[in-house]
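Lab manual, section 2.4: Encoding a predicted structure.

Procedure: take the sequence of the chain (574 residues), apply the prediction step described in section 2.3, and record the output as structure tokens. A sample record is shown.
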Amino acid sequence: EVTIELAEPDDLRAILTDLFSNRESPAPSDDEIRRAAGLYEMVLEDLSGLHVGTIHSFCQLILGRFAAEAGLDPHFTVIEDQDDLVDEALDQLEAEMATREDLAEAGRGVGTNPSAVRSAVKQVFMEQMRVERWVTSHETDARVVSERVRLDLLPALLIDLRKFLFPDLDPAVEPDPDSLAPLLATALAEFTASGLDRVDAGMGADAGRTEKTTAKLRAGCTAALGLAGREQVGAARDLLLTKKGEVRKFSRVKDPEIKETYNALVAEHALPVLKILHITGYLDLYALNRDLLHLGLRVLDIYGALKNRDRVVDFQDLEDMARRLMGDQAQALSLLYRLDDSIHHILLDEFQDTNFTQWDMLRPFVDEFISGGAVDRARTLFFVGDMKQSIYGFRGAEPAIFLHASGLLTARDPEAELDLPTNFRSLAAVVGGVGCLFNASPLGDAFSEDEKVSVKQEWARREPAGSVVVLDPFAADEEAEDDGRSGDQLAAAAAARLARHLKDSGATTHEGFGDDEIERPLCWSDFLVLTRSRTEISLYEKAFREAGIPIIPPGRGMLAASREVQDVLALLRW
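Recorded output:
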């Protein structure tokens, strides 16, 4: 729109002709040219048709219009800070642990003291999105959100956990060393009977130098086979693994080549035994997750009851309820039909931080827009993001959703994907370094071949872009007269003197990009002061005012020298 507004009449006509190339008469009329010329101004004058906000505000918009369908109080309130309710839920859980043996037993498995248990259970709220999706996968359509009792689903969730950790065991049975013993006995007997023979055969002419070690190993395996259950598992672990869980080094010969060959052969032929012993290591992990899940489900139930009491919902509720609304196909079609008159264009920024619940809620809109639907005007989808910038994994962000959504759009229009390789914000070293990191291990290992990030990126910033000065608090000069100022005050005064010196000495900076880049003298708007804490910024504000430097009021530990801060020079105080 900016290009259209600034275009000359002939250029504007050419732009519109290109835009209208798919219609029968691509040449724009005089009225269309006049309307296009004022389009940008018209949009800026009336923003009432634009809904700009977070994904949660979009969920709130949907729930506000369809509260009845969501089973929600139309006058619901969203809590932005849930810490107080979380603490109250944890307090109530601790009280219940004192009277309920099942919770007390789970608590003993999670931590050795109340503080450790509380800290561990609180982490469940960091994984609330994933836990809720897991719970939902076992719910029936008849369950109502306000009546959810997550703890009732613990047995079903534990079966899922056992299937994942112990795929070779019966998921209906609680695993323990006794249940693994039959598998271990079979593998151990095979290793004793023929595995060690294959080790000797692999040593060839050097077998005589390791025969005593083999005999000792065979005797140890035989002794373990004479035991049962937990004792057999323990004996096999002691025989083949160190206390750290690493495979033991058996050969004691001095020749390093023979030693390495023998140990490698033992590890190769004992692999079936080692795999089972490795699984036994999951028993403690399973027990911890079982107990943590027990307490976590209960605290989420308590937390849900507290929200119902206060008639509030949190951000996770917004996502869950919006997803539930859009999850039923028949209901989703009805809701989309009723929303058709108000939503024609969707732009999603930072799309790499979308999680599965958000995508489930958005997917019906995407499918409807891609299909075209029965509407009389064009509808558009616009996703913006960079998979390398996904930093909200703790909120369930899944960068792969971006790749999936891109595939949906390019399947309809191969030219729908637009790469934006030019970085106007970071320096060349930063852009190039990030590109290299994401194409090398270990970061590059997180991407499939289709997701690999090209290091061929461009930058428009000229280097160097400015200076960063670190000012530590310092003591007054012992030889100078003590004027009573603290080290922080002295550092603030030094920052003000440095800024004044740079400005008055004619220091220069760069402005603009590419061919339009110019070198110019520093002005006050080029200075920025950052402090570690907000309480210290007042010292710098006072020092700069005393030095006659114009500033704007501080905010969030940042003090700028004018209303329009340019990113050229920073005074950084740690």
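Check your result against the sample. DSSP finds 23 helices and twelve strands in the chain.
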